[in-house]
Fold this protein.
Amino acid sequence: MEKRYSELTEYELNQEIAALKEKARKAEQMGMVSEYAVYERKITMAKAYLMDPDNYKENEVYEIEGEEGSVFKISYMNGRFAWGHRNNESEESALPISLLLKKVEEK
């Protein structure tokens, strides 16, 4: 039975990420786009468990990895997910903290 990411040690998480990267590489080579996307999501989630959620605070604004010029303002934290708003949109969404890059200073 597989363990949840929350139950894995840092070493085990790094092993899992390496295995997922290899599977993603193979899926990409074979042209399996949706399978590749699934592995990329799993990698993102595993990376979130290597990060400290206490480093992310409410009302702070962060850049979003892979989305040039997009920002995310945190409303609240729930485990390894930050809930808030992208680019000042009204709809609330959640992102794994591994997708949040450096903090942006609000003007």
